[in-house]
C-alpha cells in the first residue's frame, strides 16, 4: 500500500506505539538483474541488495518467486510468494555478471522499518523508492513517485503455516488502515 | 566459484536453492567428500573418500592438512612441505595403490591474499574436483 508523504510521520508514531522498539533506518540499494539471452531454458531474475545503513555495506542476494495463483490464492487478502535469500560477499555483482546476468534496473529504498513479534514476526517498512539518474549513483537518486511512499507489511511463512500467517498479516493491516 | 573468471563468492548455503530456482545453470557433476578429522599436535588432518553423490564408486581420496598456529601461506610453506615429505615416505612404505598429489592453486589469481581463509579452501576443493573429473575422463 502507499502513503502520502504528509502522513508518514503520523504512521511512524502509530507504528512506534504498536511496536515499542525504536525504528530501524533503511537505506538499501537494490539491483535487479535479468538473465541475458540464451541463458537457461527460461528467463530468470535475481535481486542484489546492498545495505548502505551498515558501517560497512553488506550484500544479500534474493530470489522472489511469482505470486501464488489459483482459486485458493484469489481468496487471500495478501500476496503469498516464495522467497529465498542468502548473505553474500561484496563481489556478488561481478559474480552474476560473469554468469551472464545483466542489470535491468536499480533502485534506492530510503525510509524506516519496524519489526513486530506477535506470535509471528511481522515487518513493516515505509520507504521512498528512488531511481538513479546515473549508473550506481546512490547520492543522486530521485523519487519514482514523489510525494508517495511505499508501505510494505510482510511476514515469513512455510507451506504449512501460510494460512495463519495470511490471517495475522490481514488483521495487523487493519491497525494501519487510515 | 567461477574458475574460468577466477571469482570466489562467499554465501549462505541457501545459494544452492537460489541457483536451482533460477534454472540458468544445471548441476553437471556432484561429488561428495566424506571422512574423518584427526588432530596430530599442531596439525589438523581431514581424510575422506570422494564419491559421486548417490553412488559408491570411489573417485579418489582427499587429504586436507592444516597447520593451526600459522595463517600465512608463505610462513607455513616450509613446515607444510616437511609434513608432506614425511607423509609421502610413510605411505610409500605401505605399498598402497595410487599416490598422493599435491596441487597448489595460484591463490593470487583469485584475488586472495597470503592470509588463509575459507575462500582459499573453496579454491583448493574446486582445483581438486577439476583434477578428479579430468582423471576419470582420461
Automatic annotation (TrEMBL), chain A:
User: Lineage, please?
Assistant: Eukaryota, Viridiplantae, Streptophyta, Embryophyta, Tracheophyta
Q: What is this protein called?
A: Mediator of RNA polymerase II transcription subunit 18
Q: Which domain of life is it from?
A: Eukaryota
One GO-annotated biological process of the protein: termination of RNA polymerase II transcription
Role this protein plays: Component of the Mediator complex, a coactivator involved in the regulated transcription of nearly all RNA polymerase II-dependent genes. Mediator functions as a bridge to convey information from gene-specific regulatory proteins to the basal RNA polymerase II transcription machinery. Mediator is recruited to promoters by direct interactions with regulatory proteins and serves as a scaffold for the assembly of a functional preinitiation complex with RNA polymerase II and the general transcription factors.
Query: Mainly resides where?
Result: nucleus
- Annotated Pfam families: Med18
Q: Keywords for this entry?
A: Activator, Nucleus, Transcription, Transcription regulation
Named from the GO MF annotations, one term is:
transcription coregulator activity
GO CC annotations, alphabetized: core mediator complex; mediator complex
What species is this protein from? Tetracentron sinense
Q: Which InterPro entries match?
A: Mediator_Med18
Q: Subunit comment for this entry?
A: Component of the Mediator complex.
**Which protein family is it in?**
Belongs to the Mediator complex subunit 18 family.
Subcellular location(s): the record lists:
Nucleus
TrEMBL record, chain B:
> Which controlled-vocabulary keywords does the entry list?
Activator, Nucleus, Transcription, Transcription regulation
Q: Which Pfam families match?
A: Med20
Which InterPro entries does UniProt cross-reference here? Mediator_Med20
> Annotated Gene Ontology MF terms?
transcription coactivator activity
Some GO term, biological process aspect, for this entry: which one? regulation of transcription by RNA polymerase II
State which residue ranges cross the membrane. Answer: none
Q: Name one GO cellular component term.
A: mediator complex
Location of the protein in the cell: Nucleus
Domain of life of the organism in this record?
A: Eukaryota
Note the PANTHER family from the entry.
MEDIATOR OF RNA POLYMERASE II TRANSCRIPTION SUBUNIT 20 (PTHR12465:SF0), UBIQUITIN SPECIFIC PROTEASE HOMOLOG 49 (PTHR12465)
- Which family does the similarity line name? Belongs to the Mediator complex subunit 20 family.
Q: What does this protein do?
A: Component of the Mediator complex, a coactivator involved in the regulated transcription of nearly all RNA polymerase II-dependent genes. Mediator functions as a bridge to convey information from gene-specific regulatory proteins to the basal RNA polymerase II transcription machinery. Mediator is recruited to promoters by direct interactions with regulatory proteins and serves as a scaffold for the assembly of a functional preinitiation complex with RNA polymerase II and the general transcription factors.
| Subunit annotation | Component of the Mediator complex.
- This chain belongs to the protein called Mediator of RNA polymerase II transcription subunit 20
Q: Which species is the source of this protein?
A: Tetracentron sinense (Spur-leaf)
Amino acid at each position: 500500500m502507499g502513503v502520502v508523504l504528509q502522513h508518514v510521520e503520523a504512521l511512524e508514531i502509530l507504528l512506534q506505539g504498536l511496536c515499542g522498539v525504536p525504528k530501524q533506518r533503511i537505506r538499501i540499494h537494490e539491483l535487479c538483474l535479468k538473465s541475458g539471452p540464451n541463458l537457461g531454458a527460461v528467463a530468470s531474475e535475481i535481486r542484489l541488495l546492498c545495505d548502505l545503513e551498515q558501517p560497512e555495506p553488506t550484500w544479500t542476494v534474493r530470489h522472489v518467486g511469482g505470486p501464488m495463483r489459483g482459486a485458493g490464492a484469489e481468496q487471500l487478502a495478501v500476496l503469498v510468494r516464495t522467497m529465498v535469500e542468502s548473505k553474500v560477499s561484496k563481489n556478488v555483482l561481478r559474480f552474476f555478471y560473469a554468469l551472464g546476468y545483466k542489470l535491468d534496473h536499480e533502485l534506492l529504498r530510503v525510509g524506516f522499518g519496524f519489526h513486530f513479534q506477535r506470535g509471528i514476526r511481522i515487518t513493516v517498512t515505509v520507504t521512498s523508492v528512488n531511481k538513479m539518474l546515473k549508473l550506481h549513483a546512490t547520492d543522486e537518486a530521485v523519487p519514482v513517485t514523489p510525494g508517495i511512499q511505499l508501505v510494505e507489511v510482510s511476514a515469513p511463512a512455510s507451506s504449512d503455516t501460510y494460512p495463519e500467517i495470511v490471517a495475522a498479516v490481514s488483521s495487523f493491516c487493519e491497525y494501519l488502515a487510515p | 566459484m567461477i574458475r574460468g573468471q577466477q571469482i570466489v563468492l562467499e554465501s549462505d548455503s541457501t545459494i544452492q536453492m537460489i541457483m536451482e530456482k533460477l534454472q540458468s545453470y544445471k548441476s553437471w557433476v556432484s561429488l561428495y567428500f566424506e571422512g574423518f578429522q584427526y588432530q596430530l599436535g599442531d596439525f589438523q588432518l581431514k581424510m575422506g573418500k570422494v564419491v559421486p553423490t548417490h553412488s559408491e564408486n570411489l573417485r579418489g581420496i582427499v587429504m586436507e592438512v592444516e597447520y593451526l598456529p600459522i595463517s600465512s601461506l608463505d610462513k607455513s610453506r616450509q613446515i607444510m612441505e616437511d609434513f608432506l615429505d614425511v607423509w609421502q615416505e610413510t605411505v610409500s612404505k605401505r605399498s598402497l595403490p595410487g599416490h598422493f598429489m599435491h596441487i597448489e592453486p595460484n591463490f593470487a589469481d583469485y584475488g586472495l591474499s597470503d592470509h588463509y581463509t575459507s575462500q582459499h579452501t573453496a579454491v583448493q576443493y574446486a582445483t581438486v574436483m577439476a583434477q578428479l573429473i579430468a582423471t576419470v575422463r582420461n
